[in-house]
């Protein structure tokens, strides 16, 4: 889908932003680029749609060198969502979302249906939100509309540059779950930049860690946590709480016992073990019910099961 072949980029100031970088992003992946400030992650993202140029090497999109496309043609095939959203303040939500489909000459009925479908996808009732203006929306709702706009023309790729960085933690966590669901349901190829390791671990099918314009390691979230390529990787993902981060990659549903519901609290079945441990500790519970989106009982999660060894692995015994 997207391939970087020995790409280099030096700014006019003499700063080397990208240094001989090679990477292939497959169709349908959710690739998250992480790294310290100045590592080259945003530069790399912007090279894909030619917002930044490269000095050496080639970037291929669907097998074609990106400079073989006209800029407008290339960008219309890629959605782009950024932290500042950039909604047009005097346009309604519907008109904001429909910008690119209008440019492509879609029929009015098709545009209207697409707007409604995207609003529903992001849990925004079309009857309520399509006629609202940006100032009538919360920050999280504006960000949802911004991502919906990026997806409006059904682009092959969605590029996201720190899209949730300005939001408060609760809204940010909600939108992360929303993006994960959207990726699963749409199968889109998504390339995202973030400085937030936990966000990368939560969303990515593959993480690319950059340092000084080079790829330090690429792999699944589990691979970065359990098979770090260097001490730099360990330090970046968090040396002191790797165990907690591992819990965030596992679903509580996987450890639920097929038991009748308990009286008391419930958690969504999609809850991670990290979230479940936090909830159980806060409420001093030994077990909690899990419930599906449709309200169906999904078993009972016991705290003892979270910390017990797998069935094929004997427990450590000391003394």
What does this structure look like?
There is one protein chain. The protein has 14 helices and 13 strands. The protein has helices at residues 41-48, 71-76, 93-97, 99-103, 108-121, 126-129, 139-151, 169-186, 197-203, 221-226, 231-237, 242-248, 273-283, 303-307; strands at 2-10, 16-25, 30-34, 56-61, 64-65, 78-82, 157-161, 189-193, 206-211, 214-219, 266-268, 287-291, 297-302. The chain has a 6-stranded mixed sheet, with helices on both faces. Helix content is 36%, strand content 23%. It is an alpha/beta fold and 319 residues long. The longest helix is centred in the middle third of the chain and has 18 residues, at 169-186. Mean pLDDT is 90; it is low at 313-319.
* Ends distance: 56 Å
Percent of residues in helices comes to 25-40%
Annotation field: number of helices: 14
Mean pLDDT: 90
Taking pLDDT < 50 over at least 5 consecutive residues as the criterion, the unreliable ranges are 313-319
Silhouette: globular
- Report on the biggest sheet: 6 strands, mixed
> What structural class results from the helix and strand content?
alpha/beta
């Amino acid at each position: 889908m997207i391939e970087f072949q020995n790409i280099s980029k030096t700014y006019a100031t003499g700063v080397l932003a990208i240094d001989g970088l090679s990477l292939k992003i497959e169709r349908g992946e959710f690739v998250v680029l992480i790294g310290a400030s100045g590592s080259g992650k945003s530069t790399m993202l912007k090279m894909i749609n030619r917002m930044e140029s490269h000095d050496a090497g080639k970037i291929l999109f669907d097998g074609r060198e990106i400079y073989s496309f006209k800029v407008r043609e290339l960008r219309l095939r890629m959605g782009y969502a950024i932290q500042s959203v950039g909604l047009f303040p005097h346009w309604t939500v519907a008109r904001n979302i429909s910008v690119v489909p209008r440019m492509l000459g879609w029929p009015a009925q098709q545009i209207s249906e697409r707007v409604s479908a995207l609003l529903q996808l992001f849990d925004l009732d079309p009857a309520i939100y399509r006629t609202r203006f940006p100032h009538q929306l919360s920050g999280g709702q504006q960000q949802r509309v911004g991502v919906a706009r990026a997806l409006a023309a059904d682009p092959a790729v969605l590029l996201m540059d720190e899209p949730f960085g300005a939001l408060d933690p609760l809204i940010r966590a909600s939108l992360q779950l929303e993006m994960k669901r959207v990726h699963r349901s749409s199968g889109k190829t998504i390339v995202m930049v973030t400085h937030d390791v936990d966000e990368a671990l939560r969303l990515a099918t593959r993480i690319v860690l950059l340092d000084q314009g080079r790829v330090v390691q690429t792999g699944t979230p589990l691979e970065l946590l359990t098979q770090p390529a260097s001490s730099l990787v360990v330090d970046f993902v968090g040396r002191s709480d790797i165990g907690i981060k591992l819990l965030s990659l596992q679903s509580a549903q996987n450890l639920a016992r097929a038991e009748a519901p308990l009286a008391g609290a419930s958690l969504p079945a999609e809850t991670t073990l990290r979230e479940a441990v936090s909830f159980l500790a806060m409420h001093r519970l030994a077990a909690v019910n899990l419930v599906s989106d449709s309200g169906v009982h999904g078993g009972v999660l016991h705290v003892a099961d979270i910390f017990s060894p797998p069935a094929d692995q004997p427990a450590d015994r000391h003394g």
